[in-house]
């Protein structure tokens, strides 16, 4: 019927039909077929920057809920605003700058171990680096956000790794209402056990903070969330307070989001440096010129222009977030498309990042120089770099991630020469985040400093 209404409807209806046939989905996976849409970047911008709640997030599946809880990424509307209001102060640039010392200290202890391995090998040493970087970023988020350590949070990280695998598998499964949530199937029993493990460990960390003799909680993320419960007036309390369950859910979010994404950014950056040795050399030269061979600080890091350009290019080519999902809250038009209420929209970050029409003919190539005059000059659409998303729901941890990545890359380059092991197999896999399926084996050689 719609086909005969108007040209506009006709176009939408053909796409709905196509999406339903190809994906066998009752909803339209709109932006999944970019070749059907002109100006995909503009459509993505309109969806992501909408401030009226027309494009909320989808209802989360149980395995995603188990991973994040109802933390910041999954809450909506007023709930989301309250959570974001409480946690935002932990991510101001001034706060982040004070964290670089802790980031550098965590990196230092990993690199000392690398140094020992390289020395024992008396030359170069093969090492799988992605798991090392994952432990490092876990250690960093534990220290900076929770006043804890990787060892204390290990139970959480390990259980979350398994929950992540379950969530990635569930996204491909048929969703039978009720079954995935309530039936004691083998998978659900396993998920419930992991959830309990995460919760108990987090309660232990929080209890430690409650028992501490210090009258004011520490000035980190956990401290801020707990301090919010002590707000003075009733009005303030209503506006700012997070319940204990909400704090636990935010802890789940930050334990996961704080390490998983940044570790893959670091891994892909190391791969790109190994495969582009001239950039490896240029970056090392820049790091030694701006930071010397000592411990880096935030002011030094802000001068690392080439390192920043390489990280941006890694985020474009191998951004840890591959796709974002939204829903249409009501019947809407988007560009010249008519979108029925409850339509699911998938925003394909990875495809937008390699679109030759906006990034140029060399979109598939590693070319950090494209950012030499800033991101807006590198690309035809100002919002085509979506690695951290844009709009009100953009990543709250993006400056944290960039600071951490710069610290770690600078400290590695001060001390080591890296090259790719012949055992590396290039197989990027989307497991909620984009990661090298078989890890990243590299050859490590210590420099004389
Ligand atoms: C390279 C590193 C990172 C990448 C690529 C990344 C990417 C993203 C993206 C694309 C979103 C938007 C998701 C959506 O709207 O569907 C997001 C949201 C979020 N990220 Fe990150 N992220 C990174 C690091 C971090 C870190 C280090 C933290 C915490 C310390 C963090 C915490 C969050 C939170 C809490 C949200 C939800 C924000 C909201 O809805 O208000 N992320 N991130």
Please provide a brief summary of the model.
By secondary structure, the chain is mainly alpha-helical. It has helices at 7-23, 40-48, 62-68, 77-87, 93-121, 130-146, 150-172, 179-182, 186-211, 221-227, 234-240, 244-275, 277-291, 298-301, 305-318, 349-353, 356-359, 375-378, 398-415; strands at residues 124-128, 323-327, 332-334, 337-339, 344-348, 416-420, 428-430, 434-436, 441-446. A 3-stranded antiparallel beta sheet has the order 1-9-6. Strands 2-5 form a two-stranded antiparallel sheet.
What attributes does this structure have?
disordered N terminus; 449 residues; two-stranded antiparallel sheet; globular; 8% strand; mainly alpha
Present the secondary structure layout:
Blueprint: H1 7-23, H2 40-48, H3 62-68, H4 77-87, H5 93-121, E1 124-128, H6 130-146, H7 150-172, H8 179-182, H9 186-211, H10 221-227, H11 234-240, H12 244-275, H13 277-291, H14 298-301, H15 305-318, E2 323-327, E3 332-334, E4 337-339, E5 344-348, H16 349-353, H17 356-359, H18 375-378, H19 398-415, E6 416-420, E7 428-430, E8 434-436, E9 441-446
Antiparallel strand pairs: 1-9, 2-5, 3-4, 6-9, 7-8
Helix pairs in contact: 3-7, 5-6, 5-19, 6-7, 6-12, 7-9, 12-15, 12-19, 13-15, 13-19
The structure holds protoporphyrin IX containing FE.
